[in-house]
Amino acid sequence: MPEKWTKLIPFNTIVQSMFEKKDQFCDACKRADEEEVTTDWCKSCLESLCLSCVKFHKQSAASQNHELIPVSDKDTVPVAIESRVLCIDHNTPAKYLCVDHEELCCAECVCTKHRKCNQVDEIEKTADNLIQSGTLKKLAQEILKHNDVLLHAKTEGETTMKHIDETSDIIAQESTDLRDKLVRHINGLLEIHLDDLVKKVKGIKEKLAKFDDTVTDRQLLMTQYSQILTDAEKTPPPILVQNYLKIKRQFKQVTGLCFYKTSVDLHSKASKQLSTILDTFGLADAKVEVKSIPIGSIDFTCAEMKLQ
């Protein structure tokens, strides 16, 4: 497919050559290292000529029938298409149309290349028939109609482009809002979790402190019992026996009481639960659905347009 279909539009080689010249000097004289101001343009040779060369050009048998255009009139030359079409095989004026091949040709082509074709018409006659039959008008109407279709398609394309931009902005904003909502939600859950953790730790520490106090009291009692029994030799017999019986009875009571040490294991699944968020590989990709819809009889996704 051509990058720019406008390059396929027929153009006037004469006008193009005239405007592409970078100077206003005679081409024939320049070949002789001379500079003479151009006065005319030879349509057949595609060269600029000065006043003297124009004279010789008209006198020469080879160029006496060439059409000369004054450079002062170059702006009046039809830009759309040349008035004369040359045969691509023989570089002579094409005067016939081979209907079988839809190809312009010269007299020599008619006698050689197209001698077996069923219908070969004169170009002048064909042109008159195209105008009189309304064929040109019908084609022009079809072109205008298709141009309206293209204009509508272009408008729809611009509308689609705007819709894509707006939709993209909406999706981006929704994603950002959802992210912020998730962050706020997670922060809220984390705050509740940490408050609960603080309360539980405080309760456990209070129990451990109470257990520690109880153990300390019993340690002091055992130390006192040991000290009394250690000083037995210095104690009078009545007091010694009395202390013994008292300590024995109290010790039995103390050791007979159920006494449990506290074992604490603090753990939480919150971190593991939060880590599952990190295990998410990524968000789903944005999906774009593209449909190729033919416009008229041309599918612009694969069509090739050629002008011959």
TrEMBL record:
Residues 21-71 form the B box-type domain. One of its GO terms (molecular function) is zinc ion binding. The keyword Zinc applies. PANTHER family: BONUS, ISOFORM C-RELATED, MEIOTIC P26, ISOFORM F. The keyword Zinc-finger applies. This is Transcription intermediary factor 1-beta-like. Gene3D superfamilies: Classic Zinc Finger (3.30.160.60). Keywords: Metal-binding, Zinc, Zinc-finger. It comes from the Eukaryota. SUPFAM superfamilies: B-box zinc-binding domain. Transmembrane segments: none annotated.
